[in-house]
Write a structure and sequence with these properties.
By secondary structure, the chain is α/β, with parallel strands linked by helices. It folds into 2 domains: 122 residues, Alpha-Beta Complex (Aspartate Aminotransferase, domain 1); 238 residues, Type I PLP-dependent aspartate aminotransferase-like (Major domain) (Aspartate Aminotransferase, domain 2, 3-Layer(aba) Sandwich), CATH 3.40.640. The chain is built from 11 helices and 15 strands. The strands form 3 sheets. Strands 4-10-9-8-7-5-6 form a 7-stranded mixed β-sheet, with helices on both faces. A hairpin with a 4-residue loop joins strand 2 and strand 3. Helix 3 runs parallel beside helix 8 and helix 6 packs parallel to helix 7. It is globular. 47% of the residues are buried. Bound molecules: pyridoxal-5'-phosphate. Pyridoxal-5'-phosphate binds next to helix 4.
């Protein structure tokens, strides 16, 4: 059987990794400034993470959600404490798209509405409702296109106000910082007004922190720069540091009902062990502070790079936009300088390294960038 061929692949196969480094099968070393799509939070194969998952597997790896599993409560307790959302509840699932689907269900069950506001350049996943609120027609199949969705311009509060006052909006979904769309940070004032307007019009505010959450922005959640409290917050990626786990943080205003949500694999013992290890390391190694400090340093050091047009982002979620297409530079960084980076559109680097990188790695990235830009 062949694999269903949906991914363009680089001819590189990492077979070993440690914190922010990867090695391919020939022993060539790479520096990871991409974190495998912002997934690696505490660092590849962090020894504490490996230990916790291994020990858990030696006891029990899985049983269904019809029996007690205190590990789920432990994750919820620690996540509530570290994120500042102690009074919210947690629903555990397996992927970012699934987290968003569940957030829509909670919102829709609660206010009986179905139409969602999303924003231009948004990415929220590839399943039915999640892809319908993703602003990329090329990945929306006719099957997904029947959802009621209104896309609005980024940071345009008047457009939001006009749409909300129709009185039929179930929820507004917005990324803490737009990731795939190009590292776009929402204005603080826009988020504040969005939060108030949604409430006034009986709509729920869903913050998709799947890419921008778990300390990546230099705060636990990126929306916390605006001091707002959304009704629902979705998390995935950094939550498991590579183990597939996701969740919805649900405000106390929602009332759960048996059967309202459910999953076979969500919140299994191994996923909880991974999630707990991630939270422990984030706290013990002060990785949120490190993301803030190292991110600031990266932004300072990147100033003056040849052809740089704009720097966007916060913490270790940084977009470097150049005034020329970067595909070739990115390839040179990977194949000649051995550094993984991400991209958005034709001219923006998307930097999403593990949260444990330091100034030495930033210096190495900047000197490598200078080298490849010299030949441009
Ligand atoms: C902001 C955001 N939301 C949702 C998703 C979907 O997550 P998953 O691929 O785990 O379904 C992603 C994935 O890139 C994302 O960046």
């Amino acid at each position: 059987m062949n694999l269903f061929d949906v991914y363009p692949l680089y001819p590189i196969e990492p077979i070993k990794a440690n914190l922010f480094k990867l090695w391919d099968k020939d022993g060539k070393e790479y520096l990871d400034f991409y974190g495998g799509h912002a997934v690696i939070s505490i660092g590849h194969t962090h020894p504490y993470y490996v230990k916790k998952i291994t020990e858990q597997l030696q006891n029990i790896g899985f049983y269904s959600n019809s029996v007690l599993n205190h590990l789920q409560n432990d994750v919820a307790e620690k996540l509530g404490r570290l994120s500042g959302y102690k009074d919210y509840s947690l629903f555990l699932c397996n992927s970012g798209a699934e987290a968003n689907e569940n957030a829509f269900k909670v919102a829709s069950f609660s206010n009986g509405r179905s139409k969602i506001i999303a924003f231009n350049k948004a990415f929220h996943g590839r399943t039915s409702g999640a892809v319908a609120v993703t602003d990329n027609p090329s990945i929306i199949a006719p099957y997904n296109a029947s959802h009621r969705v209104q896309f609005l311009p980024w940071n345009d509060i008047e457009a939001v106000k006009k749409e909300l006052t129709n009185g039929d909006i179930c929820a507004v979904i917005i990324e803490g910082i737009q990731g795939i769309g190009g590292i776009n940070v929402p204005d603080i004032q826009f988020l504040k007004e969005l939060s108030i307007l949604a409430k006034e019009n009986g709509a729920y505010l869903i913050l998709d922190e799947i890419q921008s959450g778990y300390g990546r922005s230099g705060k636990f959640f990126a929306h916390q720069f605006a001091g707002i409290k959304p009704d629902l917050i979705t998390v995935a990626k950094g939550m498991g540091n590579g183990f597939p786990v996701a969740g919805v943080l649900i405000s106390p205003s929602f009332t759960p009902k048996y059967g309202m949500l459910g999953t076979t694999f969500g919140g299994n013992h191994l996923a909880c062990a991974a999630s707990q290890a991630v939270l422990d390391v984030i706290e013990d190694e002060k990785l949120i502070e490190n993301a803030a400090i190292t991110g600031k340093y990266l932004i300072q050091q990147a100033q003056g790079l040849r052809g740089l047009k704009e720097i966007r982002g916060a913490g270790l979620m940084i977009g470097l936009e150049f005034d020329f297409p970067i595909a070739d530079i990115r390839k040179q960084l990977l194949f000649n300088q051995s550094i993984f980076t991400g991209y958005s559109g034709s001219s923006t680097f998307r930097l999403l390294p593990p949260l444990c990188i330091g100034k030495n790695e930033v210096d190495h990235l900047i000197s490598s960038l200078n080298k490849v830009l010299e030949n441009k």
